[in-house]
Known about the structure:
The protein has 250 residues and is α/β, with parallel strands linked by helices. 37% of the residues lie in helices and 18% in strands. The longest helix has 20 residues, at 192-211. The chain is globular and about 50 Å long.
Amino acid sequence: MNDAELLRYNRQIMLPEIDIEGQERLLKSTIAIVGLGGLGAPAALYLASTGVGHIILIDDDVVEETNLQRQIVHFESNLTQSKVSSAAQTLKSINQSINLTQIDHRLSASEYSELLTTVDVALDATDNADSRYVLNSACIATKTPLVSGAAVRMEGQVAVFDSRSEESPCYGCLYRDIEDDALNCAENGVASPVVGIIGCIQAMEAIKLIVGFGDTLTGYVLYLDAKRMEFKKFKLGRDPNCSHCHPSSS
Length: 250
């Protein structure tokens, strides 16, 4: 690190869990954020400010008026602009030294598998089941840790699926088969701070995975009931009948 980086990240370097070695790992790391909406927006902001060296932004959508209530990486001036371009502008205004890759189309399974070989951690901040399953399968194939978040109404959840561990469940273990958009914000609404809380937790889990400290949410689901402001943590075991991480059982 140079003097400017030592000064910029001083408050993190002071933490014994991170220190200089951990900060250097962050600066050399690559994170893929799939979805630049309510969850991906706060996650991207904090990962950029934390000093993640390379962030891959993936989203095939454009910024709309209804997004601005919760997708805090976008502004009124970005309306009709692609979300990856809008997010990139904001992240660069926060931290010019980071590298950004913009992907403005929905990736196929083969494209994900190729991309994730270059990625340390993937964040699932999508809003549809099809994308979640495709990303989950690619993370299993490439053994890429996946930090999954979801939020609707006044509820949210975060889980970490780390296929580097034989004991880790995957997204398919949590949800075997769900219909696309079975429960979404467009039809059910969402309180904006809820996605902010969940997105920030996703960023924190990604940082822990890269630096290597603390206990991650691997093997657990953290559930938030914002109406009562209650967090509950549930143990999630690997499903021996899961068709995603146990394809022979399908």
